[in-house]
Amino acid sequence: MKADAKTPWGGRFEKSPGRFLTEFGASLPVDQRMWAEDIRGSVAHARMLANQGIISEADADAIEEGLSQIYREIREGSFVFDIADEDVHMAIERVLTERIGPAGARLHTARSRNDQVATDTRLHVKAIIVDLAHRTLCIRRTLLRLADEHFGVVMPGYTHLQKAQPVLFSHHLLAYEAMFARDFTRMKHAFEAADVLPLGSAALAGTTFDLDRDYVAARLGFSRVSVNSMDAVSDRDFLLDFIYACAVAQMHLSRLAEEIILWSTEEFGFITLDDEFSTGSSIMPQKKNPDFAELVRGKTGRVVGDLTALLVTMKGLPLAYNKDMQEDKEGAFDAADTLAASLRAMNGMLDTMRVNADAMRLGALGGYMAATDLADHLVSRGVPFRDAHEVVGRLVLACEKDGRTLQSLTLEEYRKHDPRFGEDVREVVDIDRVVERRVSAGGTGHDAVRVQIKTVAAGIAADEAWLEQAEG
Ligand code: ARG
Question: Are residues 296 and 147 in the same domain?
């Protein structure tokens, strides 16, 4: 193809890539969504150039005016993006220059797309993180509300997916809150990693112009300025931190989804999903499927894939910018979009599900889950723990053969099995007492969970405060 006058590097070329390679090389469909950040960054850069006497105030005014017009058009949907522009940066700059002439052509002074794209991406990711942090807080508030509302409901706690010890449903829910609280912390870290201004690094080596990078940083809301121009244009660690935070959060959602799927089976029956969050079958009229929980679980693979993809993209790259890095945004945005949608779906599911306290309680009565307490009871009466374990083990075996629960045995039956069982043995196996006895800090006992609820509420409030200042 003949050299296309539209490319900004036309001067040096006699031929240019054809349609296929132009599209192959373009990132516009992916980076178009950074248009607002691109405009903000350009306005800040132009103002700084004028402040430093590098361009005139009149040129900076024309640039700002032209970019404001483009901003309105993109927001209203009347701006036409042309894939021939390769990326959002060139699309906006080209149209600006077509409209305002030489002033537009001065915008790119002391700037490269290498520091420009790094700046836009960091701004965009910071905004995404604020949104995801809000969604994470939403689900944490829902879990806290449910924990509060269903306080006292006892359910089986599992290890190896075998009944282990009874726990409060609130305790189980708040275990997920703890995961999402850590996800929030990871998002905060990713935000801080992204909060560095690369603009002013130019292509890789800095520029001959005397820039005021601190001014640009302050204007764009960055708290720091990058210290090494080569690192600044080739660093995508902030995206890796971000996708990692997404991947872990998505994994947590996936685990919760798995429990929701299990709990809504007839076999468990612990919860009933709202019809709005369930689907039917095209052939089996009776079916009610937890499709959305399954999708949350299923989408985890792609987010983990997004993380792996960027790690592999980066691993062989020499300094500084390489075009490979254009592949960074698609995965990062996919991880963000997937997590945002999953958080929304999961929050709705939790918010509307019916909790079947009776089924949970019935489940907690099975599985001989008071056995540890029975052994502890014998220990308190002087029996060595290993012997106590043996005595209770044999009792469980006998119950299993007779189809009995520990709660249905009479004092006489206990004593017949082993005379060392005390008067109060039936209270020992009372399922509410079994839970209540877990008094250790962080345990499932009622008092410990009451303390936990307060701690969780305080943690949510602190994170809300962080988010408010992050939003500026
Ligand atoms: N579209 C490019 C990207 O996303 C922008 C930077 C291109 N720089 C360059 N020297 N080709 O990475």
Answer: yes
**What is the DSSP track for 334-393?**
HHHHHHHHHHHHHHHHHHHPEE-HHHHHHHHHSTTTTHHHHHHHHHHTT--HHHHHHHHH
Q: Which of 160, 342, 377, 389 is catalytic?
A: 160
Which of 37, 94, 326 for a ligand 1 pocket mutation test, highest count of atoms within 8 Å of Cβ?
326
pLDDT at 7: 76
Question: Does 261 share its domain with 163?
Answer: yes
Type of residue numbered 9: W
Is residue 3 over pLDDT 70? no
Please give the backbone phi and psi of residue 101, each rounded to the nearest 5 degrees, phi first. 75, -140
Mean pLDDT confidence for 444-472: 97
pLDDT of residue 6: 64
> Cβ neighbours of residue 209 under 8 Å, at least 6 residues apart?
49, 52, 54, 109, 110
Query: Which residues are CB-neighbours of 138 under 8 A, at least 6 positions away?
Result: 343, 347
Tell me if residue 160 is catalytic: yes
Residue where a domain stops, chosen among 305, 340, 357: 357
Mean pLDDT of the 124-137 span = 98
The Å distance, Cα 117 to ligand 1 centre, comes to: 7
- Predicted model pTM: 0.95
pLDDT confidence tier of residue 16, bands split at 50, 70 and 90: confident
* Residue 310: pLDDT band with limits 50, 70, 90: very high
Q: Kindly give the distance from the C-alpha atom of residue 94 to the centroid of ligand 1, in angstroms, as a whole number.
A: 15
- Rounded to whole angstroms, the Cα distance separating 215 from 51 reads 10
Specify which residues 225 forms β-bridges with.
197
Residue 114 has pLDDT above 60, yes or no: yes
Indicate whether 238 and 145 sit together in one domain.
Answer: yes
Domain count, the chain: 3
- Phi, psi for 167 (deg, rounded to 5): -135, 165
Mean pLDDT, residues 296-309 taken together? 98
Q: Kindly state whether residue 245 falls inside one of the protein's structural domains.
A: yes
Do residues 327 and 377 share a domain? no
For residues 167 and 76, membership in a common domain is answered with no
Tell me if 118 is assigned to some domain: no
CA-to-CA distance for 213 and 135, rounded, in angstroms?
Answer: 33
Q: What is the pLDDT of residue 212?
A: 98
Ligand 1 centroid–CA 113 distance in Å is 6
CATH value at residue 375: 1.10.40.30
Question: Quick one: which of 460, 358, 427 has its CA closest to 148?
Answer: 460
Nearest Cα to 169, choosing from 251, 291, 268, 253? 268
